[in-house]
Design goal:
Blueprint lengths: L16 E2 L5 H10 L3 E4 L3 H5 L1 H10 L7 E5 L4 H7 L6 E6 L5 E6 L2 E6 H13 L5 E4 L17 H9 L7 H15 L4 E5 L6 H18 L7 H8 E2 L3 E4 L7 H9 L8 E2 L5 E2 L2 E4 L4 E5 L15 E3 L1 H15 L1 H13 L5 H4 L3 H15 L11 H12 L9 H4 L3 H19 L7 H12 L18 H9 L19 H4 L9 H11 L5 H12 L7
Parallel strand pairs: 1-5, 2-3, 2-7, 3-6, 4-13, 7-8, 8-9, 14-15
Antiparallel strand pairs: 4-5, 10-14, 11-12
Helix pairs in contact: 5-7, 7-8, 7-9, 11-17, 12-14, 12-18, 14-22, 18-21
Amino acid sequence: MKLNRTALTQSAALTDYVLPQYDVARVTEKTAAAPAWLHFGTGNIFRAFPAVLCQTLLNQGLTETGIVCCEGYDEEIITRCMRPFDNLSLIVTLCANGKMEKELVASVTESLALSTDEDRVREIFKNPSLQMVSFTITEKGYSLRGADRELLPAIRNDLERGPEHCTMFLPRLVSYCLTRGKACGKPLALVSMDNCSHNGEKLKLAVFEILDAWKEKGYLEEGAYEYVQNHLSFPWSMIDKITPRPHESVQRALEADGWEDMAPFVTSKNTYIAPFVNAEKPQYLVIEDDFPNGRPCLEKAGVMFTSRETVNAVEKMKVCTCLNPLHTSLAVFGCLLGYQSIAAEMKDEDLVGLIEKMSAHEGLPVVVDPGIIDPRAFLQEVLKERFPNPFIPDTPQRIATDTSQKLSIRFGEDIKLHLARGTAHSLVLMPLVFAGWLRYLKGVDDQGNAFACSSDPLLNKLQPGMQAIAEGAVVSAEDLEPTLSDLRIWGVDLQAAGLKERVVQYFNEFNAGPGAVRQTLHKYVTACYPNEPS
């Protein structure tokens, strides 16, 4: 059985699947004529979450149109993973009890590759029916500048050439918005759904930097700037759902159901993709309710619409305390201790002790309570259900990607709150993770075996210096400068927080020789907060 529109007629063979409960051809026709939702970034999180939310509304008769998706970075997802399967996806939810919940999703009605379908994208932007353009393009997708803070050469060229001749995604996006202003003048919401702090603000800042440059050079027609300024919104959001790389065990299960051509593959841009997505069951999407041209009633599918302040509080709760710093901690030490699975790490008493004690005694005392989600309940779900789920094939190596870009938010924000309270100097486990990451940068595990560090924009800058430190060498804070003083990495002044020397001490202990990572981790996790329950 092939994954295509014909499969939709074979419901007798798909009794274990949630199937579309709507006329897919009719929805496709209506979406083509009057699209309401365009999405950029067609990876696993989009297909397993926003696309499923839209299908939920379609199944309930709460909307008549689906989603048009577009890929502007890795177009092999479109040409090899969407179009050959009639834009259908199999979404497999991996429950903690071992059950697989399977859904055939048909809410994506059209898939576009920006390099070849730009005219169609521009046509969609012109349509007054368009209500929202959403994005899952990763945090790096919103950047106009490199690590040196200078404009990327291709971006600089686009700013010089103007809106009619740009080649990069963000300038093209601004150009499409200007086209909409001229064609119909209707408002529009640009909704980042990426897992990064203040995502809507990042998108808005990029849009206006491009717009300001074009205005200065005289490229904008009269009223164009005011259209973007007054008619576009940039809602903030918080998204949370783990969607690991497609796993062979899920492929085998689907093939046992009779599906053909299910093999995962890796694109030339290193995207791990398949006709299916495997994902965990818990999911959260909180969005600032700022949609000037209306929106789908996604609250009927579980999305929480609220104020910007509440979105920010939810994001801080998750990213700064209750999930992301714990994930990073498991990633760093999982790589050093030879683990290949987050779930397997949750059977390690030292690692479980690390994240339980860190969250209870260094995180929760300064946690931001958003009101709409209880931080303690959220944390318990993470610790007891999500991370230990043995059927989620997630790896510390995946989570360790771009750690230098994550530490400032995932740890630095809470340390700032401790610093304001005068308690930063008493922290034990957060600086232990910092030291563990410095040890990780050596690319040698606790048994002395070399491993490849996950991709990171600062890896080439930081790793040579760490690798030059011999095993067993004792270094000083001066030896680790300027890394220890780089606020962009840590998000806080380690010296002012009273943590710089502690990080150096921990690093020296981690670097003592084979087995030192385990020994040091056990020592501090066991010794800290001994008289309080973890």
